[in-house]
Amino acid sequence: MREDVLRLTAVSKSLPGGRRLFEGLDLVLAAGEQVAIRGESGVGKSTLLNIVAGLDAADSGEIMVAGRNLAGLDETERTVIRRDKIGFVFQAFHILPYLDLAQNVAFPLILQKIPRSKAIARAGELLDAVGLGERRRSYPKELSGGELQRVAIARALVHEPALILADEPTGNLDPDTAEQIMALLGRSVKQRGAAMLLVTHSPTAAATADRQLLLTPHGLVPAHG
Ligand SMILES: Nc1ncnc2c1ncn2[C@@H]1O[C@H](COP(=O)(O)OP(=O)(O)OP(=O)(O)O)[C@@H](O)[C@H]1O
């Protein structure tokens, strides 16, 4: 039996001032599964993604990513999990301005010490998949917000991560491009037996997931439409 890609057990988080964001949160993502999380602005959706990524700490509870318990790891080991197992599509794109698009997309592979020519070739394939293959030698400042979003998606998929964390991945995209991007993310998840945790306010993007959940201060509850 395959292990779950992500398992959260009784995760709680309060803000520095003491306000409790969420309490006793449980969630399991099986291989091949896409889960959308919705919820009011400020309820803690982005914070939850940061906790799963090991970029923020929960107050209590257990977070298992690809069979590894984040709490049992030191910062170096957490960095390796982030680098090898997770693909990020976050609101701040973190696209590096001094690298061209192919170099940006290849970056996760370069960090894994994949030979440069192979990494750049693979980045080109991903840029083709998001419709930016012709722009591979362009620099980020020459791109629109929606194009940068697509570069971030190509980079999130290039190293075939077990877990994709996506925060409003279609936020800057027109409806047609958004649909194509969600289909690309979905295919990538299903074909490889990866999993995706998607945070979005968009009912259309959320509807592409296998399950929709609502984040509330009392935990995650099933959401509909
Ligand atoms: N470092 C911090 N210190 C204090 N408060 C913080 C910090 N980071 C986030 N917050 C607060 O935590 C709450 C949850 O923020 P978060 O970004 O997780 O919400 P969200 O559900 O993703 O919201 P949105 O839908 O608007 O993006 C907000 O009230 C925010 O102001």
CATH structural architecture: 3-Layer(aba) Sandwich
Order of helices and strands: EEEHEEHEHHHEHEHEE
How many helices? The count is 7
> How would you write the strand order of the largest sheet?
6-7-8-3-9-10
Low-confidence blocks of residues: none
The helicity comes to 25-40%
Supply the helix-strand structural class: alpha/beta
**Tell me about the biggest sheet?**
6 strands, mixed
Question: Which descriptors would you attach to this protein?
Answer:
alpha/beta, Rossmann fold, 6-stranded mixed sheet, 4-stranded antiparallel sheet, binds adenosine-5'-triphosphate
Please write out the topology.
Elements: E1 6-14, E2 20-29, E3 34-38, H1 45-52, E4 60-65, E5 68-69, H2 75-85, E6 86-89, H3 101-111, H4 116-129, H5 145-157, E7 163-167, H6 175-192, E8 195-199, H7 203-207, E9 211-216, E10 219-222
Parallel strand pairs: 3-8, 3-9, 6-7, 7-8
Antiparallel strand pairs: 1-2, 1-4, 4-5, 9-10
This protein binds adenosine-5'-triphosphate.
Domain ABC transporter: 6-225
Protein name: ABC transporter ATP-binding protein
GO molecular function: ATP binding; ATP hydrolysis activity; transmembrane transporter activity
Q: Could you walk me through the main structural features you see in this protein, from its secondary elements to its overall organization?
A:
The protein is an alpha/beta fold and 225 residues long. The chain has a single domain, classed as 3-Layer(aba) Sandwich (Rossmann fold). Helices cover 36% and strands 25% of the residues. The chain has seven helices and ten strands. It has a six-stranded mixed sheet, with helices on both faces. Strand 1 and strand 2 form a beta hairpin. Helix 3 packs parallel to helix 5 and helix 4 packs across helix 5. The longest helix has 18 residues. The chain is globular. The protein starts with 5 loop residues before the first strand and ends with a strand. The model has no long low-confidence stretch (mean pLDDT 91). Adenosine-5'-triphosphate binds next to helix 1.
